[in-house]
Amino acid sequence: MSQNDSEREVACTLTEKQEAERSADVRDLLISHYLGYEESENGLDVRFEGTDESPQAVAEFVSDELQCCSFAEYTITVSPPYEETVLAVTGPDGTRQMFREGLVERLEEETASAT
């Protein structure tokens, strides 16, 4: 993480309407690939299937997030044997909670309702 973490404000800049649209985008992009998550020291590691489509879907999500949540740092990892794509989201205090509530809980709810 950057040295100026304490200076970055943890805040999403989306309006309510944009938030609703983003929720639909997240569902369409990521839900079919979602496997689960783990909390890390400074954020979350969100796991997705190791399909050919997963890295592209996760990268598209990150590209969108850069517009509204520029305080966070995003790392996409695809490592042999390519069974998972992992999105690590880290940042200043509050990042883990924001992405757990704003991303992971949505993915968990959608996954539960799809079964």
How would the blueprint of this fold be written?
Elements: H1 16-30, E1 34-39, E2 43-49, H2 54-68, E3 73-78, E4 84-90, H3 95-114
Antiparallel strand pairs: 1-2, 2-4, 3-4
Helix pairs in contact: 1-2, 1-3
Q: Between the first and last Cα atoms, what is the distance in angstroms?
A: 37 Å
Biggest sheet overview: 4 strands, antiparallel
Strand order of the largest sheet: 1-2-4-3
> In total, how many domains does the architecture comprise?
1
Share of residues in strands: 15-25%
List SSEs in N-to-C order: HEEHEEH
Low-confidence stretches: none
The appropriate CATH architecture is 2-Layer Sandwich
Judged by helices, strands and strand pairing, the structural class is alpha+beta
Q: What is the CATH C level class, in words?
A: Alpha Beta
Number of strands: 4
Q: How does the overall form come out from the CA principal axes?
A: globular
CATH fold-level name = Gyrase A, domain 2
Radius of gyration equals 14 Å
- Relative helix content: 40-55%
Give the helix tally.
3
> Please, what is the average pLDDT?
89
